[in-house]
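call fold(seq) -> tokens
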Amino acid sequence: LLDLITTTNDARNKKISEEELAEFLQSARAHAKPLANKKVHGIMKHKIPKPKLVSLKQTYINPQEFTLQIKSKMGLKDNYIKYIENRLREKFGLVGTPVRIVISYKSPVVK
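ret:
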């Protein structure tokens, strides 16, 4: 029981570098492509633009909070956010600690 408490405490206070998170995001994106949060059926389905994952940054440590920056007008499906959360837990050993992912939308540059 003491080992589990120690492991959980270490996971809550773990700092993950931006390089590790960039590599993680690239790996997650290659494994499963993100889908837009829009329901369209039939022939229009192929016309929906896929969201682009720009970056993933750790914003808080205790509890773990990450900001996922995306480029999309239609958002990101909830199940993809859950997929990212589960992969973070698996890859970085975030056992027994809450993981929160905040979505940030990158707006296009207006000239």
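The chain has a mean pLDDT of 84.
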